[in-house]
Amino acid sequence: MSGRGGGTPWHLFALLAAAAGLAFALSLAIGPSGFGFKPAGDAGALIFWEIRLPRAVLGTLVGATLGLSGAALQGYLRNPLAEPSLIGVSGGAALGAVLAIHLGLSQVLPLALPVGGLLGAAAALIAVAALAGLRGGPITLILAGLAVSATTTAAISLALNLSPNPFAAIEMVYWMMGSLADRSLTQVWLGAPLMLAGIGVLLLLGRALDALSLGEDAAVSLGIDAKRTRLALIAGIALSVGAATAITGVIGFVGLLVPHALRPWLGHRPGLLLPASLLGGAILVTAADIALRLLEPWADVRIGVFTALFGAPFFLWLVLKTRSELAP
Amino acid sequence: MRLEASGIKVWLKRRAVLNGLDLAADRGQLTAVIGANGAGKTTLLRVLAGLLPAAAGEARLDGRALAAWPRPQLARTLAYLPQERTIHWALSARSVVALGRLPHRALGQGESAADRAAIARAITTMDIGHLAERPVSDMSGGEKARVLMARALAQEPQVLIADEPATGLDPAHQLALFRHFVTFATSGRTVLVALHDLSLAARFCHKIVLVHAGRALAAGPPEEVLTPPQLAAAYGIAAEYRTIDGLPVVLPFDVLP
Amino acid sequence: MAAGIETAVARLASTVVLWLAAMMALASAEVPRRIVSLDLCTDQLLIELAPPERIAAVTHLAADASVSAIPDRARGIHVTHGAAEDVLGLDPDLVLAGPFGVSPTVDLLRRLKRNVVVVPLAQDLDGVRLSIRTVATAIGEAARGAAMIEAFDRRLASLTRPRHGPPPTAVIYQVGGVTSRPGSLADAALSAAGFHNRAGDYRLSRSGQIPLELLVAAPPDLIVLASAANAYRTAAADNLRHPVLDQLRAARDVLELRWQLWLCGTPHIADAIDQLVAARQRLQAARP
Question: Is residue B210 within 8 Å of residue B218, measured between CB atoms?
Fold first, then answer.
């Protein structure tokens, strides 16, 4: 059932969808005040609707965003090392969001927050593309991504340093190590439309990514519009990753891990990897969030740290593997 | 369908790569484009495939300007095999061949029965049935070349443009590939290839266009184009066109001063 | 009988004489004239204990209304950002520092033979008294320090009259979900006002945070908010803007108590305790 044939591996998708649903349900039922959908009596409904539901929805939506955007980036750049946090897109989103908050824009217009994230993500993506060239090799891309990440981190530090609020240090952690905790439905309503719009745009790229397996010239000759594809990619990533990061902070490595894990099951087809990574990302982030909540009494770990714990060694391994493949 | 170029000019990095080139490739014929390295063969093929706009002059397909062809229709009519034979993911051979059907599938539409039939035919023609489920990353150069050719065939185009399809293939594969080209052409299609191997061009192609200094130095049947003075002018070599057992061969003797 | 009284009077007289001598000796000793403070808490104590002409500089935080209890009194006083070079340029004869954040500067100043007094962080009301006494003695205003402590004690005594019934529960909830840990100054303020600090019953994270869910599931009788939700432009304050808190306001008593009052171990904590006591009285009056 490796899906190398012409058909869609429906079994795999059914499995992923079921797992995502299960994770979502579990996420609604687990929390410090008890297991179940209606914990702790009177306040139970309040907890369920205002605290657990936003958390579960965000976990699923943000996970889907990160998984999908990783798959889309890798497919477009023909590069398995591409990932929104590694190439500086998440950092750019965080910077946009920080500026929206610290310039007071988000207090006047709440939508300014995810829009700030969107603009920051788009700017970072364009910067990386300009630095690396869209046809650069894998290592070039990582270097460009490092440069953009370093720049955005420095800019965020500067913004927080100059900000008069006394919580700058906590806030740095907040952005750099993402978290799903204590988010409200209001924040979900702010970010969800943009995330869904971005997801929608990215899901349409399946054909283009498949055709691009043969290189850009062959893809164009197969009827793919190169310019529109590039625009759709930038717009989709900016919308989805921008809004997600503005609400949760940077959660990295999901877009690296999920496509890599699912690729062999889909015959390496980049088009099919898009919806699969969407589901896979939702499962990964929700499951990680559940694990964190179970660990909560003993260790207070943020989800960004958790994903980095698994993602960073994996990334190192991937770099070494790529290097050995490139070596003469 | 007739593929034509008249007065094509293309500038790349402030150099006139093509400087007023004329070419015609007809139905039922295998036409070759030859010329020294850097003569502009790839650029010419890309212009004729609609991938690169010409700065001046016009490319026409079936009498209509290439620029006037809607992209989706062009994709269903013309297949392009680039020089670059990288396949970026470890797709199965069948998946690669199936990519040729993309121009015939609407967005969101899966594979139809017609698609599956075309894919099967292409696989049979190129004799890669036994490779269908194998990842292309495990294949040799010759096998990969056949898979890519099958992709182009699955597209069911009227025109096939291939940039140096024989480079890097062993003699057996080269012969096999060109026999396929001839069969494809003589079944009523137009085939245009760029080559380095002059003997191969002489043996299989109905018409040869010799590109030099951004123009078509000569165009016509092999024996008319591959003459010593023209080869000397285009390649800077002393060479002769011979036939051995009825098969044409071009022998390069020496580099001219 | 007469002999006993005679001895007592003699002993008293000698003590008084000794004491007067000590005071005169102290009075004739050099009191610091150029005092620099490198910490918000010592800033505030310094400003309230020393005459302004003897203060060379305080930190920029002293005039910052978001963290200082006495921003107006700090206006016009020279500001230092704590760099050793800057401090040396002021040529201080006494440097007051807190336990955090300036240890390289403090080390350097000590090596250069400057007089540095490190005032420990107050963790309870005794700590407040110790802080006052330490600063007062160091700057040569022991009398004023004693008077400040006395006034503080008097005020506390009037606030913390004996109570009846079980203590109501309270929690101080801050930016980032941080609460009043047991053993902290905030905890001491709550106890002094007659509350049981609920934070001790929850399982707090390492950084003293409490998940909002727990606060909602088992809320205390009084929730004390240390900052207004929109007081700071920071994403870390999102927990204060969570809609659930509005629901809690409707169901429970909420007190907005500026953290400037109990952030440092100064007598202003009595203002905090005052407001907490008033809240407790309201709660107990509302109880059936």
Answer: yes
